[in-house]
């Protein structure tokens, strides 16, 4: 059923290769693009690593093939082990399925299918060309070596790990909405505007520049009508030299009308007012009608709070300025917890420093696979 190399690999060695592919995927940046790792096992037994470094860069399989060729290896007859099904479509980068066919690999083992309509189906393309294309679980079950129940369990657990690499991306795809990033600029005591509504500027010049770099990477930027009315923002991406080359679609969400002459309207026709508070509908509309795959919600506190309450934020940037206001508009409104366990937990990267501002990049913490059985903490632990 498979190439010579695949049949020569026992289940335990496959599990080690799957695990290495996951570690490679973890090297990629967390963004609206899936993190993917690939390990090319050559007929000689040599291995070549690849991973995806973010939007517009080679996919993991292409990276591994490029590195193999650069090192003087011939990929023909190799087995590609990858954390996500090779894509079937050509976009900013060529189709990975086509790249594997052209490279002459004989087998491709992927953790799970690509859930997107655009890119899914790569495994079928490979099979149509006579290449063995199996999920990790099927590969262990079908290896010519006797695989043990332990091998099967390891393949299943590693598949779950590979899915967890991109849990929020997978969720956005399943909900047919854009991947949603939110950005907050706040004081040390959690205020995003002073009592009179002024908020320009809370954070340092350097933090605002980082915010503009983020804007230049997304397809659209949204604010609520509250921010529109308070700040009259342009919602453009700017660099020290002027407007960035890529300008996202400008979006206002909320039922109040957009005042005539608002800066956000612009002159280029790239402005949309979604006169609704139904966020899931607004998000699917942005993707369906405007092709938005990555949306940045740039405030304010009511819109971000509503999106958090609906579990629609996949990625969060919080810029914290070491300054105190003591009163004002909190950075998030509308969560309404009644007790500590109502909180929303996030996993954060190491903080970044931008000038005087501390920046936290975080994402919603995935639900624990099992219930916490540790019990109520002893009073002394509190
Ligand atoms: N420091 C920062 O990073 C930052 C960033 C942005 C804003 N701000 C500050 O935030 C203040 C504005 O706060 P804000 O909370 O009024 O602004 P907001 O969150 O931008 O807008 C709130 C409005 O969003 C609309 N909306 C859309 N979907 C909603 C939903 N599902 N649930 C509730 N509302 C929804 C509602 O408008 P309708 O009533 O029209 O339906 C609501 O009144 C200003 O002072 C501004 O300067 C600070």
UniProtKB/TrEMBL annotation:
It comes from the Bacteria. Coiled coil: none annotated. The keyword Hydrolase applies. Substrate binds at residues 215, 235, 238. NADP(+) binds at residues 185, 199, 201, 227, 231, 300-306. Zn(2+) binds at residues 59, 87, 96. This is Riboflavin biosynthesis protein RibD. It catalyses: 2,5-diamino-6-hydroxy-4-(5-phosphoribosylamino)-pyrimidine + H2O + H(+) = 5-amino-6-(5-phospho-D-ribosylamino)uracil + NH4(+); 5-amino-6-(5-phospho-D-ribitylamino)uracil + NADP(+) = 5-amino-6-(5-phospho-D-ribosylamino)uracil + NADPH + H(+). It comes from Helcobacillus massiliensis. Residues 12-134 form the CMP/dCMP-type deaminase domain. Residues 360-382 are annotated as: Disordered. Binds 1 zinc ion. In the C-terminal section; belongs to the HTP reductase family. In the N-terminal section; belongs to the cytidine and deoxycytidylate deaminase family. SUPFAM superfamilies: Cytidine deaminase-like, Dihydrofolate reductase-like. One of its GO terms (biological process) is riboflavin biosynthetic process. GO terms for molecular function: 5-amino-6-(5-phosphoribosylamino)uracil reductase activity; diaminohydroxyphosphoribosylaminopyrimidine deaminase activity; zinc ion binding. Signal peptide: none annotated. Pathway: Cofactor biosynthesis; riboflavin biosynthesis; 5-amino-6-(D-ribitylamino)uracil from GTP: step 3/4; Cofactor biosynthesis; riboflavin biosynthesis; 5-amino-6-(D-ribitylamino)uracil from GTP: step 2/4. Its cofactor is Zn(2+). Converts 2,5-diamino-6-(ribosylamino)-4(3h)-pyrimidinone 5'-phosphate into 5-amino-6-(ribosylamino)-2,4(1h,3h)-pyrimidinedione 5'-phosphate. The active site is at 61 (proton donor). Its EC number is 3.5.4.26, 1.1.1.193. Keywords: Hydrolase, Metal-binding, Multifunctional enzyme, NADP, Oxidoreductase, Riboflavin biosynthesis, Zinc. The keyword Oxidoreductase applies. InterPro entries: APOBEC/CMP_deaminase_Zn-bd, CMP_dCMP_dom, Cytidine_deaminase-like, DHFR-like_dom_sf, Eubact_RibD, RibDG_C, Riboflavin_Biosynth_HTPR.
């Amino acid at each position: 059923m498979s190439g010579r190399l695949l049949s020569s690999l026992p289940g335990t060695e496959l599990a080690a290769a799957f695990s290495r592919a996951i570690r490679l995927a973890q090297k990629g940046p967390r963004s609206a693009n899936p993190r993917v790792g690939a390990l090319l096992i050559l007929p000689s037994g040599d291995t070549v690593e690849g991973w995806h470094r973010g939007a517009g860069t080679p996919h993991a399989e292409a990276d591994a093939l490029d590195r193999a060729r650069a090192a003087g290896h011939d990929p023909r007859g190799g087995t590609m082990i990858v954390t996500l099904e090779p894509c079937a479509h050509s976009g900013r980068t060529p189709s990975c399925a086509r790249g594997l066919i052209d490279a002459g690999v004989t087998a491709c083992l992927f953790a799970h299918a690509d859930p997107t309509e655009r890119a899914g189906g790569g495994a079928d393309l490979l099979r149509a060309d006579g290449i063995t294309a199996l999920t990790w679980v099927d590969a262990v079950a079908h290896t010519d070596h006797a695989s043990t129940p332990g091998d099967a369990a390891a393949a299943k657990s590693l598949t779950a790990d590979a899915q967890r690499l991109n849990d929020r991306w997978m969720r956005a795809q399943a909900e047919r909405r854009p991947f949603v990033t939110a950005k907050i600029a706040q004081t040390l005591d959690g205020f995003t505007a002073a009592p009179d509504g002024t908020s320009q500027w809370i954070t340092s010049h350097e933090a605002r520049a980082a915010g503009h770099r983020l804007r230049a990477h997304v397809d659209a930027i949204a604010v609520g009508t509250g921010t529109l009315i308070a700040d009259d923002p342009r919602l453009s991406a700017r660099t020290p030299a002027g407007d960035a080359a890529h300008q996202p679609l400008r979006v206002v969400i909320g039922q109040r009308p957009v005042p005539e002459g608002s800066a956000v309207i612009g002159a280029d026709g790239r402005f949309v007012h979604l006169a609704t508070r139904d966020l899931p509908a607004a998000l699917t509309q942005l993707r369906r009608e405007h092709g938005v795959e990555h949306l940045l919600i740039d405030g304010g506190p009511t819109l971000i709070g509503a999106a958090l309450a609906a579990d629609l934020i996949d990625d969060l940037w919080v810029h914290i300025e070491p300054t105190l206001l003591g009163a004002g508009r909190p950075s998030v409104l509308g969560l309404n917890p009644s007790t500590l366990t109502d909180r929303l937990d996030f996993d954060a990267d190491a903080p970044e420093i931008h000038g005087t501002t501390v920046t936290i990049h975080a994402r919603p913490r995935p639900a624990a696979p099992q219930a916490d059985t540790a019990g109520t903490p002893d009073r002394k632990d509190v």
